Each structure stands twice: as structure tokens, then as C-alpha cells.
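hi support,

uploading two proteins for the ticket. first:
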Amino acid sequence: MISAKLIKDLERKGFRLDFPSYSSNEERIIAILKEDNERLFLAIPLLLMEEFDYSAIIKKISKKLRTEFDKIIFISNKIFKKEGIDQSYLSKIIKKNEIKSKITDGEFRYYYESFKTFISHKKEEEETIFKDEIKIRGILNTNKALANIFAPGKIRIMNKIFKHELLTNTELKYYYRSIRPLILSILNENLQKYVRIVESTKKFS
């Protein structure tokens, strides 16, 4: 088995390994339970935020693991109530299957603090992805705007300058002769005001 430490370290370097994914939430929960690892059990409340088939899960796990699963369901239900997360379906599962379990304050705190940490990390990752998407859309919009004004050859030279790459003598002469005049026109404040008026004025009677 590949070391988890090695995989995470390689991911930070940009390397990714493709692993088969689970086809259902039930499969994920069953896989975690069968690992019989307390640290992995902490992930189950996150999965219980989605609906799942309780009967399908308990058919594939031992009686001991079912006891653990029932306890985590109780803890998750309490966490969801505390966090204002809709847990009506979880309450229905508890009532329908007559699930009973005793949980200590220590067990609840252990799961609750971990849950809050995981949710916080998830939000941070989502915000990072959102910012990256905005950045990509900005780049695409910029490239589209450039393509509407400049020819591909001019854009190539401008990109070299933008990346602080030195131009050849030929490129430098071309920049001052054909590209710079356009840039100065675009930067002209009076021209900007003029085109804003043109764009905002009604064009049809």
C-alpha cells in the first residue's frame, strides 16, 4: 500500500494519483466503518449530511460496527441540531429503525470539534476554488478583449513584455511602431469617456 504521507507530499508538489471512486454514499460509509479506525470515523458525520440508506449499510457490516455506526448517527444528529443543519431525515432514520445509543459529553465534543474543523477547511477550499475561477474568468475575458483589438502577433509580443521577457530588436521596433500607439489610445482618458458615451447612448428610435 502506498504511504499516505508520501501521497500527500506528492500532491503538494503537484503530482496526482488517480484512484477509483465510490459509486454511492453508502459505499463510502461502509468502507470507512470496515476500516474500524476511530480517526476515519470522524469523517462519517460529513457523509451523513447527505441522505443514505441505513438498511443497506447495516446489512454489510458486523454487529460491532453497527453499534459504532448507531452511535455516530446519534452524535451527528446532535451536531446538526447545534449547527442549525437540517437533520429531519436523520431523525426519521433514528425513529424508524429504533436506533438507540449512549454517548458521553467527551465523545460528543471530540466529534463536534472535528466536524467544525473539517467544515472550516471545506469552506476555505471552496473559497480558494472560487477565487481561482474568478481569476481564470478574468484572464479569459482579458484575452478575449485583447483579441478584439490586437492581432495575434501583437498579443504575443505584449505577453512577452507582461512576463518581463526581453524583446528582440525586431520585436522592439514593431512594438513602438504598431503596438504602443494603440495602447496609448486605449489609455487616453478622453477616448475612454467618448466610448462610454457611445456605448451607453440609445441607438434606435
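and the second one:
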Amino acid sequence: MRSIAVSVALSTLAVCACGDARRPLPTTPSAILPTPSPEPRSPAPAPPHLLDLETPIEFGQSDTFTVTSDDPVCGARPYQYHCRYFRVTAPRDGVMVVTIRWKIPEEYPFDMAVFGPSGGVADGQMGIGLERIARGRVSGGSTYVIEVWSFLTTSEPFDLSTSFEQR
């Protein structure tokens, strides 16, 4: 029995050795695996602070604003829109809720994102009716930037409010 196994192994080796001599048999792995980094990856960077363009707002207040053609352009081509930036400081740790509401009969004229000191915190999600809602964990005392962009060519008002999620 053992001699049959040895014969099969030698036959297989002979067939492999007699194959195309131009293709050497692999002696090392062909793919080099990356060495894991001992350091954790840093979060996505925050957008540059545009302090002269960011409108400061008070946490917990609701106000009406517009995005106009005088506001800066944001987004990547071909999806470039005008944006309005807001700056708010979280009074305590928790889940911040940012809501924008509008009265025009369009379902999706605005969108938003929230950025913190180390990157993105939340993106706008569909709300009920004519609103968008973003939720994200925040740290008390940290300042966050709310970016609201308008898909409209005309200036339409929207209400912006911030609050903490109730548990």
C-alpha cells in the first residue's frame, strides 16, 4: 500500500518536473500581505474651518435661514451646490439632533452634514414630510459645523434647530 502511494507521488513529481520549464514552480507566496499597523487609523478629517463663513447659532434655538447664490459652492462636480455653514457648541455629551424644515412643496430641496473636531458626525436622513434630520454623538464643549446645501437655484427659507435626543 505504501509503495503505491510513493509511486503516485513520484509520478506526480515527474509529470510536474517535465512540464514547461519556462514557468518555475513557486517557492514563495506571490502576494505580500500588509503588516498591520500598531496605531489605530485616525478618523476622517473635518472640513477646513471657515470661521468667517460659519454663522454661530445657539444650541437649542430654532432660526430661519436661506442659502443664496452668494454663499460658497460645495460638493464635487457635477454635484455642486451653494452651501451655508453654521457653528454650534454642544453643552454636554449626548446624541445631537439637527433638523431642517422648509415650507415649499418640494420633497428634497436641502440636505446637510454635521462635522466635529475629528471628522464627520452625521448626514441628513429623510424626516417626516418637509424636513431632514441628522443625529450624531457629540462631546460637551466641542464645536460642530453644520453644512446645509441647497439644490434650488432660488433662495428659499428653511428652519434650523438643534436639540438632544431624548431616551
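thanks. also noticed: DSSP finds one helix and eleven strands in the chain.
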